Amino acid sequence: MRLSIPYPWNIKTIWMFLVFCSCFFPSLSFEGHLICGTNNQTSDNFGHKVNEAMESLWELVSSKSWGTVFKKDPKYNIFGLAQCYQDVNADDCELCFKTSQEKLQQCIPARSGRVYLDQCFHRFDHYNFYNEGVDPKYDHVTCGSPTGDSNDTYMSQDFQSKLDHVILNVEEAALRKNGYGTTEVKGGVVTVYALAQCWKTIDKQACDKCLTDAGMRLRECGPAAEGRALFTGCYMRYSTNRFFDHGSGTVEKKGFTDWVTLGVALSGATFLLLAVVGAFVSYKKLSRTKEEVTGLDALPATGLKTSLNFKYEMLEKATNNFNESMKLGQGGAGSVFKGVLPNAEAVAVKRLFFNTRQWVDQFFNEVNLISGIQHKNLVRLLGCSIEGPESLLVYEYVPNRSLDQILFSKDKRYILSWSQRFNIICGTAEGLAYLHGGSGVKILHRDIKASNILLDEHLSPKIADFGLARCVASDKSHRIHGSRIPCPGTTNRESRRLWIRGASS
Description:
Keywords: ATP-binding, Glycoprotein, Kinase, Membrane, Nucleotide-binding, Receptor, Repeat, Serine/threonine-protein kinase, Signal, Transferase, Transmembrane, Transmembrane helix. By secondary structure, the protein is α+β, with helices and mostly antiparallel strands.
């Protein structure tokens, strides 16, 4: 029997398949460990206050890779901490913070929440927890799969010996170097790598206690090839694969005298070079900061020129003062509410939490990029409001939920057939194709994921959330102004690699 295939199997079909894979199959990497408190805060604006605290943390993390925040309210207090691990570069740190922020949204309205990722830690609570090192109630260890030699008695014993050595060494390295250390133990077939990081807020005694307890628990993972200790005051990980960007020390069973000698010999030769480079980088950062301040002052004028302005008071009334009963969803940038305009038209109102440089950039970027384009598979922007205490975006109302809510719903009424899934894939690909040239300009969305694909009453897809989108020249696929674009909205590591190669948007 000969099959008739209605859709041509060309490059576009392959592209659609890649989109399908990124939306429907989960990442195989470590997705993080989320812990939410059991006590809830009933105040209506609690979630808003938590996100204000997170935004304050964002400014600190983006400048020095960690920070704490305290928000006082007559009804409750909010303490926050966020920290990237010391081996993580600035771009990955910002990406990890955004991801952790989105995950912590799942905890609200709980009064506390913490999330561990492979590059950062993020926590909020109702009391001052900054010097807590251990907490038996929440401290947790995750172990990977056993090594291939776990059935061999000698090899298993050798691996356990290496594991004991590398954990002891990384504990000592972290205590010597202000709470952060990386080590490796070589010899034989397998090399074992380890990283330890204490939070900046705990003292040396609490760090020592946390690392000691974490190391004892982590040893129990052997003969697993990988393990993580997710503790209240520290993070420790080992693996047979090198997972950190640069080490603070290398330890072999024969000792590390040669490495110390080499380090001393090279340090004098590189000192002058580092001083020159440091001065140049400082000068460039200062120049860029001045440019950003100038640009931030100019941005609102751009938005005021648009003809899409709504009155803040009208949108506030349309959403019943942003009542929780009108809430459609919440993400890292803000909450979305259903609203009914005076002409009885239903709309979706996105209420942005923040007004810093980053979020102002995203706000006006979204207004300017999509206000002039229309496509059946793109959510239509109706307007915005910048006159009130908060920035608001107004979109067409899409009655069904986002694709991820449909896919992971326990309600069997929302099980999608393969025909419906294929139509969603095709519609998403058509929307992306339009963005990539059909509108006369080339726009990269940079944040395609199931939660940003909305479904209308016919389950037709509409791509939403253009806050991270960028225009590029028609002959460029992954570079803007000569530098590679990070993919800050994507949590799936494989999707990120495909995007960088131009196979995904």
